[in-house]
Write a structure and sequence with these properties.
Layout: H1 7-14, H2 17-22, E1 38-41, E2 53-56, E3 61-64, E4 70-71, H3 73-81, H4 85-96, H5 107-132, H6 138-146, H7 151-157, E5 160-162, H8 168-175, H9 180-185, E6 189-190, E7 199-200, E8 205-211, E9 217-224, E10 233-235, H10 251-259, E11 265-266, H11 270-278, E12 284-285, H12 294-303, E13 308-313, H13 315-328, E14 339-345, H14 349-356, H15 358-366, E15 369-370, H16 371-380, H17 388-402, H18 408-426, H19 433-440, H20 444-447, H21 450-480, H22 489-494, H23 500-512, H24 520-528, H25 530-537, H26 540-543, H27 546-549, H28 554-587, H29 590-607, H30 615-619, H31 629-648
Parallel strand pairs: 11-12, 11-13, 13-14
Antiparallel strand pairs: 1-2, 2-3, 3-4, 5-8, 6-7, 8-9, 9-10, 14-15
Helix pairs in contact: 3-4, 11-14, 14-15, 21-23, 21-28, 21-31, 23-24, 24-25, 28-29, 29-31
Length: 649
């Protein structure tokens, strides 16, 4: 069977020889240099103790200095798996996610054609470089100097210049005996539609060679010198060598730099990549004239687990970032994601580095945010969620995005992160008592009567203790009856849970109860340990609740949850009334104070109506502290005493 042109090249580009060989050997990390792809190990083909087997990942070849075995990834699979050439191709193609092609009897002929095209492209590189240094390239040289590119950098990037003529490159290549079909096939010239000579694709442009991962020139990018040109940047047309959706500018050098520990940065254009690399960010790449494609994302993830997308800080750059998010969501895997570094408004990496230096660029990269945060920003920024309908619309949009994620584990974590962000956005903004006193004016807490302050403190401690007990009951009911959580999700989110153990239980409950209710207890034990859950369920006032000691009745559990949550809400209303009464003690007439105290008592009574039902709750506190019956009776006495003190004054 013959393979189509480019198939083996693509297969080798997609695979790392180090990964293929690494399944069979144990690397000697003292002798190896992983960053440079220079790896050593004991030879898998003969018995030895020393590391004489060498893998050069950049060249894609291995060699043993002991037994002299040598070859590439295909040869290695053939030798170690005892299979033929085509079987080795099939093994590696499956690993690389490439379907095997249909039989093509002319594949060798096409492969030879590709090799000839690559040679023509190298001749074009030399032609453009010579013209940059010629008289016709003076304006282009001046422009490059203004952009910060001088001699050494121009040599490194092989920057050239296409002269402003119709047949400059065509005549040069034909003069060297290059066949017309090769010039056309390389995308360097086009036939005339008016019967004249073919004409060059690139004219009066600064030229940037585009090389594949193996270093072969496969295309060019040209920057127009004429500001009136319709296309500021122009790429080679697609050819048998060049597929722009499967190529990255600076692919090979960036892969090497990333292997040495540098972050992989994805910019928008050639000049951005060159500026980043010259400033010390060698692992920089750019897509070629299109939005990032699925194939390019997989290429990026083969270089680094978490590339940083550094897009221009303008509207177009943000739109491009959002397109990348939508593309990436279904492709996410454990350990494979993206981060986003948003440039200052109106600047690209090249602008920022020239204006403020590499430190400013490093600062932007250090502030890169995870993809989930940019997704949240897109759905919430500039919007007001002041109605249930708008909140529901936000939930719907986010749910649709999260459901695009195929990996169930990542989908769960995204859901929890979104839930946490949603809680921060919609949580009640409570004003503390200290802030309330401050709003009333300076000196109020200090000047308030000592007896009033003490009484209020007593009321608050009693109040908080009862809320603490009811929170324990709610958490226990929800943990043992997780099917009811979805109905009370928002109320559970709004529970304050000042006890850190209860807060941790609440977070674990919300994280796992809806997605995996059957294993909720296991998730809680795994994240918090068994002691926290055991302490909760062993509380005497919790253990006597019917749907705790006999869980499974969802209707009863839902009813009990609703009652407990309503009582907490009533207690919070009572707390607010006491706060207002404290203020009124200092500066309100007796009639108003009496009214406030009456309302506080009413709220307190409403929260305590089911005394028989809640007998255990009032008798036993979490940590062994008891709420005595005379403390409840003291409430009325305190209220009356405050009124009596006020009238006496």
């Amino acid at each position: 069977m013959s393979l189509p042109p480019g198939f083996l090249d693509e297969l080798r580009n997609r695979l790392s020889l180090t990964q293929v060989v690494g399944r069979k050997v144990m690397w000697d990390m003292r002798k190896s240099n992983q960053g440079k792809g220079d790896m050593w190990a004991p030879c898998p083909f003969h018995h030895e103790k020393t590391a004489s087997f060498h893998v050069d990942d950049r060249k894609g070849f291995y060699y043993c200095f002991g037994c002299h075995a040598k070859g590439d990834a295909l040869k290695f699979v053939q030798e170690t798996e005892n299979v033929g050439f085509m079987e080795a191709v099939e093994i590696l193609a499956r690993e690389a996610g490439m379907p095997m092609p249909a039989r093509d009897p002319k594949a060798q002929e096409k492969q030879d054609f590709r090799g000839q095209l690559a040679e023509v492209m190298e001749q074009a590189v030399q032609f453009f470089r010579l013209n940059l240094n010629a008289g016709s390239g003076g304006a282009a040289r001046d422009y490059l100097v203004r952009r910060g590119l001088k001699g050494a950098a121009l040599e490194r990037w092989e920057v050239g210049f296409a002269p402003d003529g119709w047949q400059g490159l065509w005549d040069h290549l034909r003069g060297k005996g290059v066949r017309e079909e090769l010039i056309f096939g390389a995308g360097l010239a086009k036939p005339s539609t008016r019967g004249g000579k073919p004409y060059d694709v690139f004219r009066n442009r600064i030229m940037f060679p585009i090389r594949d991962a193996r270093g072969r020139c496969i295309a060019f990018g040209g920057r127009a010198m004429d500001p009136k040109d319709n296309a500021k940047y122009l790429n080679s047309p697609e050819t048998v060598l060049f597929d722009k959706g499967r190529s990255l500018f600076n692919h090979g050098p960036a892969r090497t730099a990333a292997g040495q520990g540098q972050p992989l940065v994805v910019a928008e254009g050639y000049m951005d990549v060159i500026a980043l690399s010259e400033a010390g960010f060698g692992a920089a790449v750019a897509p070629l004239g299109t939005a990032v494609t699925e194939e390019q994302l997989h290429m990026l993830w083969r270089i680094a687990d978490e590339p940083i997308i550094a897009l221009d800080g303008d509207t177009a750059g943000l739109r491009a970032a959002m397109r990348v998010i939508d593309l990436a969501l279904p492709l996410l895997e454990a350990g494979k994601s993206l981060r986003f570094a948003i440039m200052p408004e109106g600047k690209d990496p090249d602008d920022l580095i020239r204006a403020e230096g590499s430190a400013a660029m490093q600062n932007v990269l250090d502030q890169a945010v995870p993809m989930v945060r940019l997704l949240w920003q897109r759905e919430t920024e500039g919007r007001v969620f002041d109605s249930p309908e708008r909140k529901a619309a936000l939930d719907k949009n986010l749910r649709e995005k999260i459901m695009l994620i195929r990996d169930p584990s990542i989908r769960t974590h995204y859901g929890q992160e979104i839930k946490d962000l949603r809680w921060q956005l919609f949580r009640p903004q409570r004003v503390s008592r200290t802030q309330t006193w401050q709003k009333r004016g300076p000196g109020r807490p200090e000047n308030a009567p000592a007896s009033s302050s003490a009484r209020s403190s007593f009321l608050a401690s009693t109040q908080n203790a009862e809320i603490h007990l009811r929170e324990a009951a709610i958490l226990a009911i929800a943990i043992l009856n997780p099917q009811v959580v979805v109905e009370f999700e928002h109320q559970l989110e709004e529970m304050e849970c000042h006890d850190p153990d209860y807060a941790a239980l609440r977070q674990a409950l919300l994280r796992h109860a809806i997605d995996d209710p059957e294993n909720l207890k296991d998730h809680i034990i795994a994240s918090l340990g068994g002691e926290v859950l055991e302490n909760l369920l062993n509380l005497r006032h919790v253990a006597v609740i019917p749907c705790v000691y006999k869980p499974g009745d969802d209707e009863k559990a839902a009813m009990t949850m609703a009652e407990e949550l309503a009582k907490i809400k009533a207690l919070r209303g009572y707390e607010a009334e006491v706060d207002e009464a404290r203020e009124d003690i200092a500066d309100t007439e007796d009639e108003a104070l009496t009214y406030r105290l009456a309302r506080a008592a009413e709220e307190r009574n409403r929260a305590s109506r089911s005394q028989n039902e809640d007998k255990a709750i009032f008798e036993v506190a979490d940590n062994g502290a008891r709420i005595k019956r005379d403390e409840r009776e003291a409430f009325a006495a305190i209220m009356a005493g405050i009124k009596f003190d006020r009238k006496r004054r």
